[in-house]
Amino acid sequence: MNVWNVEQLLDSFVECAALARRIKEDPHTLLKDDRTPVSDADKVIEEHLTGRFGKEHVLGEETFQNVSREPLLDTLFHGKIWIVDPIDGTANFVNRRSLWGISIAYAENGVIREGGVFTPELGELMFSDNGRTFFAATEKYPSPDTLKKAIRPLEHPRRKFDGSSCINFSQLMTRSGVFKGTHPVISIGSCVCSGIDLALGRDAVYMTNAKLWDLAGVLPCLRNLSFVSVNRSGSDLFSCRISPDFYRLEPDSPKPFALRESNWIGSSREAVETIMPLCLL
Asked: Model pTM greater than 0.90?
């Protein structure tokens, strides 16, 4: 697949889910240098996607370490590339929770054009296509035909922001930060699940410090729904531009391709501008 094609995207998601399902009952897990887990499912699925898209056109957490840096960045900024996260929410996956997903995004000339995410055990799919966002809710581990029949256009949830609105925090904020507000809070540990929850109005704001491949699949979907993103520098993550201003692209970074600073993504500017000053990290 060398261009964005929804039918082939759905096939890829279902294929990856089948691989993950076979591994999940007894995954082999290692800790990376940043003390986050990686499983054999991450590696197997990323290898599968690399075979589908071509090694020279894939950016993912497993593959970027095994390719030459300069050609990779040249393709990222001046060519076409698929940005993948084979298991987003690995800690949930290896501990046999359902809050994990698969993320696939398509970028051209340094801009994320389209993206899609799929949570196999929750049966939820969200993807962008030509300026619109679509969603499907099915049973767990659905077939491509089941997914296709359930797809419908998605609109902004239009949920009022008030004191009962839920705030979703990153793992970093949960471990090291302080929230001075009184809103109910949650930490899911998956950008895929968090993006879907935002789009459906389950959460009002998501604070994230994620890496490019964690976020890439959800950004075009939320952008099309007119969600808002802010950080303390005032830049807008929904430009979907892959820039050193947003991400740590330098070769010696301890967190390669991670966001340079925390970002707050929300259903309205009121929501993100209310919550951001209450977060200390």
From this structure: yes
